[in-house]
Structures are given as structure tokens and as C-alpha cells.
Design brief:
Catalase HpII,  Chain A, domain 1, 9-stranded antiparallel beta sheet, 8 helices, 9 strands, 19% strand, binds protoporphyrin IX containing FE
Length: 365
């Protein structure tokens, strides 16, 4: 593909929805009501999404040499190695058993990146966060659709099994999940949803980001043979409530892993919408192209100090980024206030400092 194929970034590619600010305020208000209930249950504040952590890892991202100009953009502009801290999670905003399927998250914080930060209050920061989930799209791909999901989650907040079913159905996306919104007592079908080893998954940004001169969706895919071998491997019948954490801890006790970061560049604004993240960008039109290697050495993945640091002190946020990777589209704009509110509440209630790290040495062993 020639560079001319790729749609150049410009500020007018984004189009705000009517009443978007009010819709987003309603999302955040509902989210915080649920979050407060989860706090009251545990007497400890959790993330409003991706509350359960399955491993905290350190490693590094190495940008590939000789990337062509369309891929050599933003943090991938030149060959470089960035230290990273990674938090593995599952999507619900409460702690559920790993016996049942839930979307998996991989949040990556890259340290020491160059370039101006996007948010004015982060001009001293040198981090770029990538928040990825193991599905290429989000079923409710813009703010008003997301508000319906959030209302549904709030309505069933005291029914953990229903919440888990809703979140799992959302991850698989599509008509079943939409159907669930239309009826009073939705029976959200999660039968057949895979409950596979977390380390064999491919994790996607789901929504678009600015990619320097262009626009892209990003993913992290298993690269080394040992994690590729785990793709599609179901958790055994003997899986217990903490099966995912146990698998991650056991794996990194003895071995390391490699993943590849890839970028899918926007080539057609009609077929590949920015404002609706529920529409998958066709890979036949624009494949995910390799840009960097993520290397994770063997380590202790879930020590008490790491668990507390990652769950209570760290914040991952798609708006923790450089200007060259501005999050784009309605669902991304909804995330500005949502992540800020969730993180602020969590830190206040757990009496923890809200800090950004600038050295991997700050992550405890
Ligand atoms: C584009 C699709 C999305 C992806 C890929 C995504 C991914 C993630 C991941 C991986 C985490 C865990 C971060 C960590 O380990 O600390 C997370 C947390 C969170 N997500 Fe999302 N998310 C998406 C959309 C949304 C939306 C639309 C909202 C709400 C409007 C939302 C609200 C949250 C909140 C509140 C947290 C917890 C923040 C904190 O307390 O620090 N997410 N998300």
C-alpha cells in the first residue's frame, strides 16, 4: 500500500454528537452511583471498569527498525526502547469468579516517551498509555449507545451474575447485546462465550487514535511461541475463582513472553468510521501492520506490593498520551470524564496518592 492510501489526520475528522456533553455527564453520573455501591460492598474503592487484576508486569517496548514513513509516527517515529508497566484485568467493575467468561484487558503504560502531552495538566508527564481489550470493537460504539449500556448495568448492579452476562455479551457485541437493551428483564446469553487463557489473547484499542500524520486502531498480539500456543486454550474444568491470576503468576515464574504491537491505519472514512467504534475496520482493506515488540521477562507477577500499587496507586487512561496519539471519536471523548471520575474517587476513598510514574524503578517487585 502506498502512503497516499492512508487518510491524513485532521481535526475535522471528529464530529461531536448532538447533546453529547449531557449524554456523557449522564454516563458518568450513573457510573459513579454504581461505583459507590461497589465501594460500600467492599469498603474499598475499585475501578468502575476492569476492577479485577490478574497480573502486574514490567517489560519494554522496542520500536522496529526501518519502519516505513506511514508507520514511523508518534511514539513509533524512531527506533527506541521504552520501559513499560502492564496491568492485566477483566472488564466488570466488580470482582467476579474467573470460572465464568469475561472480556480481558491489557493496559500498557509506556515510560519516557517524547513529544508534548495532550492534556494541559500533564505537561510534566512522559507516559503514553494503551488500553486494550480482547475484541476488535466495542458493541456500543458511541456515547448515546453507551449510556443505554450504562443504565442497564446500573439497573442490575445488585445482580452480579447479570452484570457479568451483560459485560460478556457486550464484548462479543452485535445484535444479542443490542436486543438486551430493548427488554425489561434481559436474558443475556453468554453460553458459548469463550473463557480462554488470558495470555494467548490479542488485545485491541477498539476505538481510533491519532497516529501522527494518520489515524489508526492498535493491537497487541501474541508473538513468542509460548503465548501463541495459549491462543484459544480454554481454562480447565478445575478452574477456580482466581484461575487467571494463577495462570499468569505460574507462567511468568519460569518464562518470559513477547507480543507485537500493530497499527491498522484508516484508509476509507466511509467504511472505517471514527465516530462509531462498533464497526470493525475491514482488515482486507487495511491490515494490522507490525510496529514494535513488547518483551516481558520472567518475574513475580502478583506480589502484594505490586497488587496494591497497580490497583490503588496507578491509573491507566487513554487520555494519558502525547498529542500525536489523541483518542478519537465519541466513545473516546466519553472516556475523558469517566476515567478521571473513577480514578479520583478510587484514590480519595483508598487514601492513596494520585501519581504518574516516570521510572520503572517505582514499580515494586
Ligand atoms: C474503546 C473501548 C474501551 C477500551 C479498549 C477500554 C479498556 C479499558 C481497560 C483495559 C481498562 C483497565 C485499565 C487498568 O488496568 O487500569 C479500563 C478501565 C476503565 N474504563 Fe475502559 N475501555 C473502553 C471504553 C470505556 C468507556 C466507553 C468507558 C466509560 C465511558 C470506560 C470506562 C472505564 C473506567 C471508568 C475505567 C477505570 C478507570 C480507573 O479507575 O482508573 N471505558 N478500560
Amino acid at each position: 500500500m502506498s502512503t497516499a492510501t492512508y487518510v491524513p489526520y485532521n481535526d475535522n475528522l471528529e464530529q461531536k454528537q448532538e447533546n453529547e456533553d449531557q449524554i456523557i455527564d449522564s454516563v458518568v453520573e450513573s457510573m459513579m452511583r454504581v461505583n459507590t455501591r461497589v465501594f460500600d460492598k467492599h469498603r474499598h474503592a475499585k475501578r468502575d471498569a476492569h476492577a479485577k487484576c490478574h497480573g502486574v508486569l514490567t517489560g519494554h517496548v522496542t520500536v522496529y527498525d526501518n519502519l516505513p514513513p506511514h508507520l514511523a509516527q508518534g511514539v513509533f517515529a524512531r527506533p527506541a526502547t521504552y520501559p513499560v508497566v502492564i496491568r492485566l484485568s477483566t472488564a466488570p467493575g466488580d470482582i467476579h469468579s474467573d470460572k465464568l467468561p469475561s472480556p480481558r484487558g491489557m493496559a500498557i503504560k509506556m515510560l519516557g516517551v517524547d513529544g508534548p502531552q495532550l492534556l494541559p495538566n500533564r505537561q510534566d508527564a512522559t507516559t503514553q498509555d494503551l488500553l486494550l481489550v480482547n475484541h476488535p470493537v466495542i458493541a456500543f460504539g458511541h456515547a448515546s449507545a453507551y449510556l443505554k449500556t450504562q443504565k442497564l448495568l446500573e439497573k442490575h448492579a445488585d445482580d452480579p451474575d447479570m452484570v457479568r452476562r451483560i459485560v460478556a455479551a457486550l464484548a462479543r457485541g452485535g445484535s444479542k447485546a443490542l436486543h438486551a437493551l430493548g427488554i425489561d428483564n434481559p436474558v443475556v446469553d453468554t453460553l458459548g462465550a469463550p473463557n480462554n487463557h488470558i495470555l494467548g489473547e490479542t488485545f485491541f484499542s477498539m476505538a481510533a487514535v491519532r497516529y501522527g500524520d494518520y489515524v489508526a486502531k492498535l493491537c497487541a498480539a501474541p508473538l513468542s511461541d509460548n503465548v501463541r500456543a495459549l491462543t484459544g486454550q480454554p481454562l480447565g474444568d478445575d478452574a477456580d475463582d482466581s484461575a487467571l491470576r494463577n495462570l499468569v503468576v505460574d507462567f511468568f515464574n519460569g518464562q518470559g513472553a513477547e507480543y507485537e504491537l500493530r497499527a491498522q491505519l484508516l484508509t476509507d472514512i466511509e467504511k472505517m468510521p471514527i465516530e462509531d467504534a462498533s464497526i470493525e475496520w475491514p482488515q482486507e482493506d487495511s491490515p494490522y501492520q507490525p510496529v514494535a515488540r513488547l518483551t516481558i521477562p520472567p518475574q513475580q507477577a502478583y506480589s502484594p506490593a505490586r497488587r496494591v500499587f497497580a490497583d490503588d496507586v496507578l491509573s491507566f487512561n487513554p487520555w494519558h498520551c502525547i498529542e500525536a496519539h489523541r483518542p478519537m471519536g465519541s466513545i473516546m471523548r466519553a472516556r475523558i470524564k469517566a476515567y478521571e471520575a473513577s480514578s479520583k474517587f478510587r484514590h480519595e476513598m483508598n487514601a492513596q496518592p494520585r501519581i504518574e510514574i516516570d521510572s520503572i524503578g517505582q514499580v515494586p517487585d
